[in-house]
Amino acid sequence: MAEVELQNISRKYKNVTAIEDIAFTIPNGEFWVLVGPSGCGKSTILRTIAGLESATEGQLYIGGQRVDSVPARQRDVAMVFQNYALYPHMSVAENLAFGLRMRGADSAAIGQRIERVARSLSIEHLLERKPKQLSGGQQQRVALGRAIAREPQVFLLDEPLSNLDAQLRDETRAELKQLHARLGITTIYVTHDQTEAMTLGDRIVVLDRGRIQQIGSPQEIYAQPANRMVATFLGSPPMNILPATYNNGQFNLNAQTLPCPEAIREQLQPQNGQGFELGIRPEEISLSTNSDSTEDLTIHLDLLEPLGRETLVRGSLPNSEVVLNFYAPGRFGGRRGESVGVKLQRDRLFIFDPKSGKILYPLTND
């Protein structure tokens, strides 16, 4: 196990900057997730830590030792790739032992370690099989086992679950979390899947266009996103964004109005005619009922997705391209094209600057 520290790491390819000024420290034994859209630089960071890419600027430390000029094979890290990278002509046992044999480990010690790792991953009955005889989930466990058998200082996982089907991905994700709890090895996990990021990470690094947008625990980032990009990336369905203009104590949304909460007026002190973007999570929107004396907005129903206990509803503001996603009861009887009233938890609104995307409300004292 080891602390991993990146000090202002950048990687440039001719006129393209893949990552810029990346700086964070992962404490010994923690599980961190790098997440962001395709092309944001997360895999480049992982490959730079592994030594498969070279930083053009900055310094990299593993276990207190500077390693940015150290060859990959000497960094004592183990990487698991998206495509598993198993040797097809070798058995599972031979794949698990390969890295140890290349390092000249004792045969008896190799056998004991392979047996222990296989038991921990429930693949001891597969040791004599070849990779082509395994399911995708079994191949993924073998790839993880090969990394674990090395007992590295750091695990680097590059979208290791993306080739699995939905159910197997959920099961393997739970196994990964339990495995980390047992081994306690510093782990850096790359994914574009926000569900994986939220459920696996001790802390999350959200990236966009090669730069860090926010670092924090899953709960911190969900509750207090730094900007519109973070707010809309984490959460499924994503946060709803409503363009609005402030006027005389209320927000104008197309031809409808929404009262501006007093707390927002006090902190933001908006001016008449000032434009904002309002953010609201789907779980903070509900259908108006017959007993409601008021409703906040009227929307047209565009799409209904029954999920059993609840129904995911997508609606739009009349004469507008603004879309709202929210949940209705599972037996909701609405039909596409109908108009319904919805209520918003106005005390849970987020306010963003429409130009920069920076969060304006709520702000913490940090």
Task: Give an account of the 3D structure.
With about 375 residues, this protein is of the alpha+beta class. Helices cover about 25% and strands about 35% of the residues. It contains nine helices and 21 strands. The chain has helices spanning about 40-50, 90-100, 105-120, 135-150, 165-185, 195-200, 220-225, 230-235, 260-270, and strands spanning about 5-15, 15-25, 30-35, 55-60, 65, 75-80, 155-160, 185-190, 205-210, 210-215, 240-245, 250-255, 255-260, 275-280, 285, 295-305, 310-315, 325-330, 340-345, 350, 360. It has a six-stranded mixed beta sheet, with helices on both faces. A six-stranded antiparallel beta sheet has the order 13-12-11-14-20-21. A five-stranded antiparallel beta sheet has the order 15-19-16-17-18, with no helix packed on it. A hairpin with a 2-residue loop joins strand 4 and strand 5 (about 65). The longest helix has 18 residues, at about 165-185. The two termini are about 30 Å apart. The model has no long low-confidence stretch (mean pLDDT about 90).
Helicity, in percent? 25-40%
SS-based class: alpha+beta
Number of strands: 21
Strand order of the largest sheet: 6-7-8-3-9-10
**Can you write the helix and strand succession as a string?**
EEEHEEEHHHEHEHEEHHEEEHEEEEEEEE
Give the strand content.
Answer: 25-35%
- General shape: elongated
Low-confidence stretches are none
The separation of the N and C termini measures 31 Å
